[in-house]
Amino acid sequence: MSPRILRAMRMIYGLFQTILRTISALREAAGYIYTFLRAFISPRATLAARVLAAESQLAVYKRRIEEKNQPRPRFTQAFRLLWVLLSRVWGSWHQMAYLMQPATVKRWHTRAFRLYWRWKSRRQPGRPPIAKEMRDLIRQLNRENPLWSADRIRDTLRLLDSDPPSSDTIRKYMLRPKTPPDKPTAWLPFLRNHLEVSWAMDFFTVVTANFSFLYVFVVFEHGRRRVIHFATTYHPSMEWVIQQLREATPFGRRPRYLFRDNDGIYGHGVRAFLDGCGIEEVRTAYRSPWQNPYVERFVGTLRRELLDHVIVLNEKHLNRLLREYIERYYHASRPHLGLNGDTPVATKKRELVQGPIRLISFPVCGGLHHRYERVAA
User: Which domain holds residue 35?
Assistant: First the structure.
């Protein structure tokens, strides 16, 4: 089959699909008009009952969407157009928008206006193209002066007694660099470059058996993925955090950078304490836990391997669990991908056991510890 026939068949198929979609949209729009007219002439009691039934079903459907029991519905073009019209003629339309946000309807309106404006200006010519000599001159100035901006090129053309176009037009004809410019040091590269001299601190909560909240404060070393200090309390405060930082940095053992979030518990005193100790504070952006990834990863590991499997009785019980997990398992036995399979506290290489051996596993808090043992002959 020749390519010309294939193109013709594709055009016919596309036209057929467009006609079907148009008929479907018109049918749906006719259904909306019929519903409106029937509600307009219905008695008030019947109309109130219909509104109550519709709102109750929409409320259930909205709750199922919020609980993610089913995906969000797909809206048709006629449905979008209906709500765009309602948003223009009905002042309280946003109170009835159960299945979408009001900002979504406004975005539909912007898209509809863009399509209308494109249809309206389809026969009107756009901006007249600039002369070829002016395009060549713009490219020459840009090639010879790659650091010049579009405004600088426009001013230079004006000094050359030329009639330059606007800056946006000049920017359109400027040469595109083949290689992107060097980006400044981003957050994650900065974090990786200072692993050996940076720590992090963070809070997380644990629910006890009597439904009270225990706050756990952790100071975490980035270089060896090691927990420097942890403490628990029912009532955290700025003074309590400063005391924990004192205990975490004894005898001059301190990092160069300390990463933290914007928790209100820290207050202004933590900043003053870190400045007095010569530690540079690095605050993450609001609602950006990915900017403090290592301590967040540790908290997630701690929950998956320990806290999700026990019911904490009280503060003393939680302290014992955390101490056993961190000191006996996390630091000494758990391998880390970021350390090439090593443990945070480097262990001495053991001598190879000669002869028949077997693997011995014994439980520790949070996991299993393994070692080889020689089998007696």
Answer: 1-41
